[in-house]
Design brief:
This protein is an alpha/beta fold. The protein contains 12 helices and 14 strands.
Length: 414
Amino acid sequence: MSPKAPAPKKVVLAYSGGLDTSIILKWLQTEYGCEVVTFTADLGQGEELEPARAKAVLLGIKPENIHIVDVREEFVRDFVFPMFRANALYEGLYLLGTSIARPLISQHLVRIAHETGADAVAHGATGKGNDQVRFELSAYALNPAIRVIAPWREWDLTSRTKLIEFAEKNQIPIALDKRGEAPFSVDANLLHTSSEGKALENPANEAPEYVYQRTVAPEDAPDMAEMVEITFERGDAVAINGVPMSPATILTKLNEIGGAHGVGRLDLVENRYVGMKSRGVYETPGGTILLEAHRGIEQITMDAGAGHLKDSIMPRYAELIYNGFWFSPEREMLQALIDKSQDHVAGTVRVKLYKGSARTVARWSDHSLYSEKHVTFEEDAGAYDQKDAAGFIKLNALRLKLIATRNARVKAKG
């Protein structure tokens, strides 16, 4: 601890109830002698969160300092859906399931710090990963005066053995499977599961089947395809098979349907913001269906110029989210453009799910720009004069002809 940095009096900790954040909780108490407030977010990770409350109490946290908040609707409505309006994919493949959850967690950490008079927040991200950047950039954007404590960058608990020893010394309960080396690390929320480390560290080895938790193997999926219809309004999904649902309910339902058909698996070696490559195995069944359906409805409702412009900025938008800049002015500027593009993205898409694939097979909308009478190979009743194409081609060919003429003239002289 730097002598210029006085110990914080109260710290809000992003707390999962697991071994690592429980050790961090006790370390904050012993290292700084500070009061600790815990924040546990229900992001739809599929785990019972009340044990986190009991464990926090066991570690000496006052009941009024334990905050467990169901943020599932907020997560999908205010973070996932805006991102999906952009069809965001990092490095062309990754649906950003971990990245998009971090600004929401930081937002609540800063809020609780303000409400409880805490002068610092803390997280359990390591000094090698992206999450430390995402948590901290978000926190500073929301409160430039906040202090962020990252124990993994400060303490000397540099091995699993030392962590276990610290836990035992401080009477922190340790699950039996935590006494050995975990086969891999998992992060989960309503959008996806992310697995990395240990058994997955060598990208030359295929991921073991036990890594996958949310999807069946595509080869074991049903032999009968399933159709699912998703209805959109202004770019956001609002109903499944004609039944209106809330944002979180929609994603939950799509996860269930997609997971049963092995949809949404991704094995990716990506470029972390901190500079290294890492291998992750992701499962995003609902998000994969949602992306396919959203692109399907955009196909008939979005103008070519608007759609191509939006596609051109998508990689930059996705990179901003991946790198932790959700609360940056440039992301908000791009979001305004993206949201404007969704004014007429409304209608219904039918997606066919089969053995790991999700394919758009039909789409319809009252806002459609598709004109069958213009595109038909049959008689079009004068809707389109094919002779007009000749002038169109001549004008577009003019500069190409001038370039070719110039090149031939230069070549002849050379």
